[in-house]
Amino acid sequence: MSGRRVEQRGLWFDEFEVGTVYAHAPGRTMTEADNVLFSTLTMNPQALHLDAAWSATQPFGERLVNSMMTLAVMVGASVQQLTQGTIVANLGLTDVRFPHPLHHGDTLYSETLVVEKRLSESRPGQGIVTLEHTGRNEHGDIVGVARRAVLIWQEGAAR
């Protein structure tokens, strides 16, 4: 077969521009099954995620989507567009917050702001990019925010 070959990848360090916002598609509708599976797989027995009767007596009146799942999906939604095959390492998360609950049946929409970037002083061919991930439900309510530092290859330097 002849023709051009295109491989899906994220961005090289040099392609990131501070101030750019990437909207990630599609959104992800969070189901009850997703929440129960994620909570049990991660050994999180929090009744707020698993016990409908108890949760009905709590301030939100129902079970909520596990906030760690919200965070995982927010970050995961960015991978194909930003870091697939170009990341060296995830360096850390800061300023994680969940200002509004996510409910079963809500759809999580994610976007990422490039906050800053700099070349690594100790790792030639690599740079550190700071990303701010934001998740919103279908009504536009912010359900999660997190800053993440990632080590990214410069184009041509990846091994």
User: How are helices and strands ordered from N to C?
Assistant: EHHHHEEEE
Q: CATH topology, which one?
A: Thiol Ester Dehydrase, Chain A
Shape: elongated
Number of domains: 1
- Could you report the average pLDDT, rounded to the nearest whole number? 96
CATH C-level category = Alpha Beta
The largest beta-sheet arranges its strands as 1-3-4-5-2
Q: Helical content, roughly?
A: 10-25%
Main sheet characteristics: 5 strands, antiparallel
CATH architecture: Roll
N- to C-terminal separation? 27 Å
> Class by helix and strand content?
alpha+beta
CATH superfamily: Hotdog Thioesterase
Strand content: 35-45%
Total E-strand runs: 5
Task: Report on this structure.
By secondary structure, this protein is α+β, with helices and mostly antiparallel strands. 21% of the residues lie in helices and 35% in strands. A hairpin with a 5-residue loop joins strand 4 and strand 5. The radius of gyration is 18 Å and the shape is elongated.
